[in-house]
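Bump. Still looking for YpoC-like domain-containing protein structure tokens.
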Amino acid sequence: MNVEAIEKEKIDAWFAEWAELEGQIHAAHDARNGEAKGLMEKAILLFERLVQDAGDEVLPINGIERLTFIKAKPGQYACYRQLDELFKETKKRAARLRLQAAKK
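Sorry for the wait, here they are.
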């Protein structure tokens, strides 16, 4: 695990980028304008870079299987919801790992 990569400021930067993309993806699904897939592909890359930078320890339970599901059909609303949950759970895991590292 990369302790520096899970510092609050660094994690917050990843999630600020996700929040911006998430709003765009949500709007694209509401508008049904076909833009959601491209935005989701950007968001998937963002998530993969986050995990690569911070370490596999931040990956939630069944994270790889869930990411595979998302990548199979990134334009689907269900995949968007699943990616949103992955981001939320990853943020919680990073916070927990940060606390554990601080206790050592």
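Residues 70 and 79 are 5 Å apart (CA to CA).

Edit: fixed formatting.
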